[in-house]
User: Fold these one by one.
Assistant:
Number 1:
Amino acid sequence: MPKLTINGKDVEVPPGTNLIEAARLAGFAIPHYCYHPGLSIAGQCRLCMVDIEKTPRPTIACNTLAADGMVVNTETDRVKETRRSIMEFHLINHPLDCPVCDQAGECWLQIYYMRHGLYDPRMTDEKVHKPKAVPLGPHVMLDAERCILCSRCVRFCDEITRTGEIGIFNRGDHSEIGLFPGTDLANRYSGNVVDICPVGALTDRDFRFQVRVWYLDTAKSVCPNCARGCNIDVHVNHRRPHHNEGRRVARLKPRFNAQVNKWWLCDEGRYGFRFVDDPDRLSLPAGKNGGPPAATTWDDTIRSLAETLEGARPDEIGVIASPRMSNEDLFALRRLTERLGVTHVGFRVPPAKPADDDDLLLRADRNPNTQGAELVGVGADAKPILDAARAGRVRVLWVFHHDLFASAWHEVEVRQALERVPTVIWSGTNANRTSELAHWVLPSAAWVEREGTFTNFQGRVQRFRRAIEPLGDARPDWDVIGRVLAALGAEVKATRAEHWFQELASTVSAFAGMTYRTIGDSGQIVAAAQEAATR
Amino acid sequence: MSEKILSRNFERPDAYTLAAYRATGGYQAWDKAQGMEPAAITEEVKKSNLRGLGGAGFPTGMKWSFIPKDHAGPVYLVVNADEGEPGTFKDRYILERDPHALIEGMLIAARAVRCALGFVYIRGEYVTPWRVFSGAVREAYDAGLLGQGFDVVVHRGAGAYICGEETGLISSLEGKKGWPKVKPPFPAIKGAFGMPTIVNNVETLACVPHIVNRGAAWFAGLGTKTQGGTRMYSVSGRVNRPGVYEAPVSVTLRQLIYDHAGGVSATGRLKAVVPGGSSAPILTADEIDVTMDVDGLRNAGSMIGSAGVVVFDESVSVPDALAVVARFYAHESCGQCTPCRESTGWIEKQVKRIAEGKGRKDDLDTILDVASRGAGTTICAFYDGAVGPYISYIKKFRAEFEALIPK
Amino acid sequence: MTRATVARTPVTTPIAFSAEQLAEVRRLQSLYPNPRGALLPVLHMAQDTFGYVSLEVEEYVAGLFSLSPAHVHEVVTFYTMYFQQPKGRHVVSVCHNLSCHLAGAGTLVDHLKQRLGIDVGETTEDGRITLLTVECLCACEAAPMMQVDDRYELNLTPEKIDRILEGLQ
């Protein structure tokens, strides 16, 4: 392990660490544009200059590996002067259109100009003009004049997706990024180029002009769109409710996790949050008593549900859990089914069209918690429950989240089943064809509205946090289930998701020893997977 | 005049043929080199004080010795025949008039660095040199000189000055834009197609057979203490006899202009000289008593570069000349790294305005400041090559620029 | 000055090399440790064959190299010798760099513009000549000079240019 000195501080770093990362480890931020830890070294932006003892002039840190005995200084006068000059070079042909630029507030030209530039502009000649507001495919908008040609987006498409859509065309100060004419940037990960663009050149067509970034709040979360569970930040707009078309969730951004998604997020996950603020969100519990569904209170609902469940024999109750439910929800549900002695429990409902996976992030299993559902133990295949319902052997059917009509099951069979069951309870976030046929519709809090954990395909248990309050009277599933349990006379101490997790950890060996604290921000592998990994 | 070595065959109309080359002692050095250990060849070239004649002036033998000894895979030899430095035309003469000198130099260099495949990167516009040289390569194959453990691929560029920069050339050879590569790694460690690579200029390699034939001591003795041999000076601009002149590297700029090129034309009065291609800082009329070797020009605050001498007589407008030069660097900047990409265009605009009488009071100081701030901050030497003229033209002829700026 | 329109040869045949040319492409690719090394030579071939490097040609060549068309477009737009638009039957490229400039290249360019009735970068209406200015072609000893197609024409005067133009059909 090389030991070196950075700004007088001794630091030991793993072999192969460059000086930007070494400085980061020592607590110093070296400004840079083209360097990105997930991409090859380009060395183009020339901003990351540092002084290394015995070298004649400042050297780029990104392409210099830490070496034993190296003495590095990131803040000498000439380094600061060089940075100032490089900032001026970057801005010579930049349009300086911050007031109308959506990147404002998270633009590294702005940030570094304030930190390292602060020169008096002297470029008074006509700037080079390039294409502006050019859509690059469904998600990304290009302003070539704002581009500093750091080539991160080019390298992303070359090295990460290996699709090679973006190039830098022409040369000199007429160089510009773009697509081959007539093509789209439509790979499954296109939104990442917006994340890694350090300036306002590539902006998100979904997010741009919706809300200024300084009005956003953020919560650490996990993407619920497939079994990988990419780590994300949820950006929400509380402070300007009249912006963003009234929607509370403004955007999702990938959050680095070396073991799961690195820096990236697929477009399907990135743009998969719109349901949270859709008009079809359910916000009040509703029950049908022989008529149209009528809104009611949770207290009445819970009482009625408890009575209904108690009034049925255990073998007359069916529960179709969901791999979209959190570990906590599933464990609460397991407690309920155990108490009632229910045997018709399952969670696997095959999707109408099997999804595919790729060699980057996306998993064919588009559910976030299949692994958790298996480990917690809420049955398996739900088809026998459907068959029992069709055969008239089910009096109460509680379906969580699934739209059974959107499954691979035959529509006629689903309809037959739902129509034969005297009481269908449906829990979920948004109305669908299944909920329409239910007698009780229970609004679930969406994942961004609550706490919880998912267990990804690797067996990694990962936390998601509350970014916004539940819509209306929507509640986390664990809360509803817990209240039903209490109404059935069970002793339920859990008042928070974390409590349910504690019970889960002390009951199911795979989760033994885990707490929200040990899971932390980057997750923890369940015991079985850990054993498998170390074997 | 001293003995002609590199240009000895230039006057023969059949000089490009294998027969003519052989008749003047060609391929004897290769015969000799085949009896030498590779390390001994490199050692001989080191002792000869041969320095790269493409522009950077790096000691050739030392460059060869950087190829890792323990490397198991292929090593490539790449010849830089992307002649493009304004004011330089000597490699064209070798390609057209003495192509076998380059082939023989390649054979010997390839043996020294244990290389089985060489590429000759010829600028795209050099169609005739490309055809002539390709013909010579075919002859060498037919004669069994090539194809016996060493192959040569002749590659055409497509119009980009930056491909004369050795790593830009490698990128281009690899079928990409001619973007120079970030160093380290240097080409000797990881060059063309990811393998250790030696990039040598045409003229540099053409010297090698003579070194092997006549010995390092002889070659070193032709030049100065730190650089051996003769080299070919391209002289153009306002001189009476523009052309390629071979002379020992100890020749002075004055001798080249007045003895070889017949003196200053037009007004007959010397104003300034660009001594080493357009990237070399300009010298004034009273700075021409310098030896035309790497260190002689360096000590004079300029550089020998590719030894392209462009002479300005009194009637030449230096601001007008700088406008041409600044346009060239803006046009040829590859666009990869920021200081060069952004400021070559800006400086071109400013110089153009000044030359057109639309300069502003602060322009000259801005150019000087911007250029000196950008110098040394880029991936390759291209920008420093632009800074040379920007700063030297303005500093040495400031009054002429100021006279054009409206008060 | 009359502005000439770009002469366009109607493209009737699909963009494709002959079997012999495809064999040549494979041969060129085999010369390099990575076949991509042959991209510049094959683009030269494509330009000679199809007249200029259109987007369709770029896509075709990209297919021959299993490259993304964007990467071929990068290369085509980087180098000066690939024409992205139809060019004249002859290309006249006048050097206007330092030595040629000192030798009066500017006057020669004006002369050519006037004789051809086009501006630099344009093609005569009859599709005969495309006029360009180029940076140093490294024949400064014979300045002013220009390149006409593959040939260097040296030590130019307006009269010599007129004679050269007469020879271009």
Note: The interface with chain A takes residues 160, 177, 182-184, 330-339, 341-346, 349-350, 353, 360, 362, 366, 370, 373-374, 376-379 of chain B (CB under 8 Å).
Number 2:
Amino acid sequence: MSNQMYRQQMLDHYKNPRNEGEMDNPTHTSELENISCGDEIKVYLRVKDDKLSDIKFQGKGCAICLASASMTFEDIKGKTLDYISKLDISNVEKLIGIELSPSRKKCAHLGLLTVQNAINNK
Amino acid sequence: MNKKDFPIFKNNPNLVYLDSGATSQKPQSVIDRLKKYYEYENANVHRGIYELSENATQEYEKTRNIVKEFINANSEKEIIFTGGTTDSINFVAYSWLLRNVTKGDTVLSTQMEHHSNLVPWQQICKMRTDVNFDLIKVRDNFKLDLSDIQNKIKKFKPILFSFTHVSNVLGTINPVKKIIEIVKKHSPDTRILLDSAQGIPHLPVDVQDLGVDFVAFSGHKVYGPTGIGVLWAKEEILVKEMIPFRYGGGMIRVVNSDDSIWAEIPEKYEAGTPNIADAIGLGEALKYVSEVGYKKIIKHENEIKEYAYARLKEIPELTLFGPDILKNRQGVFSFDLEGVHSHDIAQILADEGVAVRAGHHCCQVLMKSVLDVQATTRASIGIYNDEDDIDKLIRALKKVIGIFK
């Protein structure tokens, strides 16, 4: 399974996360962690006309967590908040192309949850 | 050694089990004993006049005697069956500490404790005003700072010093007798609790020889069932310094509508129907350990430990935590691989059939204050491990390095 799980695309997103960094004057921010394993993600969103016009994130965690966040954020950039709020872990799994065990689902889900949390908190 | 005694390996032929620090596998004799109990002997204890119940009571009480012999307690009345180490420690926290602690007291523990030997004390101290909770430092060599122990014992004369026999993360074997000597010399009234959850599976515990006041351990880490553990305490403490914190059936002599009188020890501290089957299973596990013998266990585990240490040291990307002097270390190896999160390591190892633990190992204080890492990967050995298991671990670790290079 790991050959599949840790394939090149995944590792590339882990080593070179897209949209990594901070943002000046974001419209939304949120920070979440998986307490049991210590994965942490902080997101900065710029929302314009109900669309996610820009996103930046900072994170600490395992490859599954950080690569999933990077790939998810790349996908949702430019999409409507309505679209983003309807996504769930199965969409993330489809996006990264891996079926995850229950304990690793939490890792992969964190990025998306952080963005949804930022949107809902506003 | 003894792998054939453990059916899990027959049923999972590719399993490389290096997570005995989390829980041990169970020998056939323990599994058979549980089955026999439920198939032939099941009845409640201390109640029925019929033969099955008399027999179950006898078997349950016989186990108390097995435990007594195993840890060389003075009397089987000093053996309280609990749900495990966590339960045993909470027991002392509520039945003893909460009742005896007063303003100005200090409770002392250490930075290397598992949450179960830290949080109960911390929280009891918070329930009372002006009670100080302090932790002994861990030195750079991953051992407890003995001069810090001496200073804090002298300074605070703590009501309790609770520390672990063996660190579940570092493998450090604490010099229990030396520590107790320091405590007794500078504060003879300090009560001492030894958390032997990680000790007793590998090293003998003689409570009278050590001179401790409380010992806690779990059945499931010493080749016994889950859900059963032991609290040993000196009889005079059980009788004079503690009160029950769980009330109900089985612990009662007289109940009136306005007040009640407790049974004698140990029943007084075992409210409700006890975990009869697992207690009997624990007895069988201790019999198994006695039959193999600590001498043989120690010799074998030392060989595997030395082999594992040498092989892990061959990997330059790997940082190993824990004492380098192997006689001070149990077969527990926590490590960090440069640039790879412990969950990714554990995942790839799992796919190679190697079971290890990843995370903070319920030792967040140690992780934050001493090791300065978020998580580690831990391989821990039991009597069934062999050099082949270690070779497979090393091979899998090299695969991790290859993937993340």
Note: Chain B touches chain A through 17 residues (CB under 8 Å).
